[in-house]
Amino acid sequence: MEKTDKRTSIILAAEKLFSELGYEGTSTRQIAKESGANMAMINYYFGSKEGVFMEIMSKRIEAFKEQLVIISRDNLSGMEKLLKVVEGYANRVLCNHTFHKMMHRELSLPQRPEMFSNIENAMAENQAVIEGIINEGIADGSVRQADTQMMILTLMGTISKVAVSPAKITSGTGLDINNKKDRKVITERLTAHLKDLIIVYLTPNK
Questions:
Q1: Contacts by 25-30 with C-beta closer than 8 Å and gap 24+?
Q2: Which residues have C-beta within 8 Å of that of residue 108, sequence separation ≥ 6?
Q3: Residue 32 is part of which domain span?
Q4: Rounded to whole angstroms, how far apart are CA atoms 104 and 153?
Q5: What is d(CA 1, CA 97) in angstroms, rounded to the nearest whole number?
Q6: CATH number for the domain that contains residue 150
C-alpha cells in the first residue's frame, strides 16, 4: 500500500508542477521534493521525467476511454450519447485546464515527436469510440449523414481552444477561468453552445 501511495503522490506532484512550470521547467528533483519521494524512486517507477509525463497522459486518456465506453453502452440514441460525450469531455478538460494548456504546448514542440506520437495513437482509440457513437446515431436515425471526423475535430478542437485560450470567449465578460465559479459558467456556456451545434447540424431533416 505504501508503494502504491508513493507512486500516486509522485504522479500528483508531477501533474501540479507540470501545470505550473511546464514540462521543461519541471525537474525530477522538484518532483521528488514535492512528492516526498527520492530520485531513485522516481527512476524506479517511471524511468525518467518523460516517463512520469507519459504515465499521467496514459491515465487521463484511459479514464476518458472508460467514460466513453460507459456512454456507448447506455440505452440511448446515438444523438443522446454524443451530447453526453461532449458534456463529459468539456467538464474533464476545463476542470484541468492548466494541465491541458501545458500538454497542448509541450506536445506541439518539434523536439518531442516520439512522445506526441505515442499519445496521439492512444487518443486515436478514443476517437474511434466517438466515431462509433456517431455512426450508431446515423444507423438509428437520430443523426444525419455527415463528415464524422470533421465533426469530432470541430467539437474537440473547440473545447481545447477554450481551455488553451479562454480569453477568446471571456473578453469583456469579467469571467476568469481560474476562478471555480467562473469556470463553471464558462463550461456551461461552452457545453450549451456545442450541444446546440450538434442538434442543429446533425438532426436529420424530416
A1: 28/52
A2: 116
A3: 1-47
A4: 15
A5: 30
A6: 1.10.357.10
Between CA 130 and CA 132 the distance in angstroms is 5
Same domain for 70 and 26: no
Same structural domain, 41 and 126? no
Which helix (H) or strand (E) segment holds residue 12: the answer is helix 2-25
> The pTM is what?
0.85
pLDDT in tens, the chain (206 residues): 455 588 899 999 999 998 888 888 999 999 999 999 999 999 999 999 989 988 888 888 888 889 999 999 999 999 999 999 999 999 999 998 888 887 777 777 766 677 777 778 878 888 999 999 999 999 999 999 999 999 999 999 999 999 999 999 999 999 999 999 999 999 999 999 999 999 999 999 86
Question: Could you tell me how far CA 51 lies from the centroid of its own chain?
Answer: 19
Residues in the chain: 206
Grid cell in block for residue 133: 457513437
Matching residue, cell 470541430:
154
Amino acid identity of 71?
I
- Look-up of cell digits 465506453: 69
List b or e across 153-190, with b for residues whose CB sees 16 or more CB atoms inside 10 angstroms: eebbebbbebbbebeebbeeeebebeeeebbeebbebb
Domain count, the chain: 2
pLDDT at 1: 42
